[in-house]
Design a protein that fits this description.
Blueprint: H1 3-26, H2 32-48, H3 57-65, H4 70-84, H5 94-111, H6 119-122, H7 128-144, H8 146-160, H9 169-173, H10 176-187
């Protein structure tokens, strides 16, 4: 299978994980068996049932949101395991959410030309300086939240092996969904 097919499958899998996370968060399911059965039906349905003009819900999600980041996919997977198996671990702390929210806000403001510099453009040609700054950020986050630091490290590795269609480092680390999730964690909704 060519790399593009792997990237497409990975993008669909991450969208599926995000959809499953939303389902687990907002449906009041009590038993583990009910949660697993609901996720199984939801996943099969979203893959097989055409919703609009022959397209399934994952294809439509990808059209609206584009490819979600590796970080969002891994955090969704962690949340699913936390919810199903009732593991008591904090995935996103307030401090980590604040760092992600602020950095992503500056990243998106600069990408839209609302700031006099463009951080997003640095992601196309990550130099030694950018990787050192991101490595330092990873070490700081490791001190406060080890789960997020491991997630970001996995996203760096996925960028190195070019597992998504994008060639920008920041597309592996951040996306609008992660930005919204970090904001919701900051205000206490999640």
């Amino acid at each position: 299978m060519p790399v593009n097919n792997y990237a497409y499958i990975l993008a669909m899998l991450i969208n599926l994980l995000a959809l499953s996370t939303i389902t687990l968060k907002f449906l009041p399911l009590k038993s583990t068996k009910t949660k697993i059965l609901t996720l199984l039906v939801l996943n099969l349905g979203s893959l097989c049932i055409p919703i609009y003009n022959g397209f399934n819900i994952l294809f439509l999600m990808r059209g609206v949101l584009s490819d979600l980041s590796i970080t969002t996919g891994i955090l969704s997977l962690l949340y699913i395991f936390k919810n199903i198996f009732k593991i008591d671990v904090k995935i996103l702390s307030k401090t980590t959410s604040l760092v992600i929210f602020l950095f992503a806000s500056i990243l998106y403001l600069s990408a839209f030309g609302l700031l006099p510099f463009d951080i997003y453009d640095l992601g196309f040609t990550p130099s030694i300086a950018v990787i050192c700054i991101l490595g330092l950020t990873l070490l700081i986050i490791y001190k406060y939240n080890r789960i997020i630091s491991w997630v970001l490290l996995l996203a760096y590795l996925c960028f190195y092996f070019k597992l998504q269609t994008s060639i920008n480092l920041f597309d592996y680390l951040f996306d609008p969904v992660l930005w919204i999730i970090s904001f919701l964690c900051l205000i206490g909704v999640l």
